[in-house]
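ligand=iron/sulfur cluster
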Amino acid sequence: MKLENLKTYYILRKGLFGRLVVKAVDGVTLEFKAGEITAVVGESGCGKTTLGRTSLKLIEPTDGKIIFEDRDITHYKGDMKWFRKKAQIIFQDPFQSLNPYHSIYEILSEPLVVLGEKDRSVIDEKIISVLNEVKMTPPEEYLTKYPHMLSGGQRQRICIARALLVDPIYLVADEPVSMIDASSRAEILTMFRNIQKERDLAVMYITHDIATTKYFSDLIAVMYAGKIVEYGPTKKVLKNPLHPYTQALIDAVPDPDPNNRFRMRPVVPGEPPNPINPPPGCRFHPRCPKRFEPCDKEEPVLKEVESGHYVACHLFK
Ligand code: SF4
């Protein structure tokens, strides 16, 4: 999956004739390769979910290109079944994304039926196999259950199973563990990582929690106000974060302190940018402790500052 200078703008009506443009994604270029997990990291409202959904053609892009398996699908309007089989999403909220009136068997058979599978024995075989893969065993025990009979972690395993059923090669995992118990998070991420390696999947892992990327991703793209401000191999970026925003995100990760149950999670200081009216120059400049003369006038571009490590900041000429 290649995204080239991708832009997704929303138009908001204001009054009778007025309109406001929300630049949710504003010129993103990224590539997702088989066998790699790329984490897209940033605060709420930075555009990361819109980026994931635009890559899947769930939202129409405003400009730029979406190239999938060397095919330009940016404005493709035909039958998308072939693409839906190869590109899937795991949603953030396992409570909302499963139909409460359908059994697990119905939930899992639906995507196969919609995408054209008619043979019941093939459907049953695939469901049993994928339930084993996500460690819902013995699978037969879960087929007649309903979502409310499962824990949050088990529901998210069902969501992962549903995405894997059609054998995709590209997956968007949108904050897949943010709404489940802290005790199940590591287990689910480890399981997902193993499946991703075995299946050689290309994954866009969307998260606001940079701490989880350390064990879970190969590459990091840090997003701020619709733009990528730092990109590179996870180890390099976490060991040597160059952009002041990445540094602030890392500083905002709390040290585990089992003695203080009431400790608040620190956040990046300052107001997040307004996507309708982003500031001129570097979009981070109103919050940046290192801003200097050109920062409020010239917009920095993403540059390679060491092998494979890119940053958009005037500190790096
Ligand atoms: Fe800070 Fe300037 Fe770099 Fe933006 S360009 S991150 S304001 S130093």
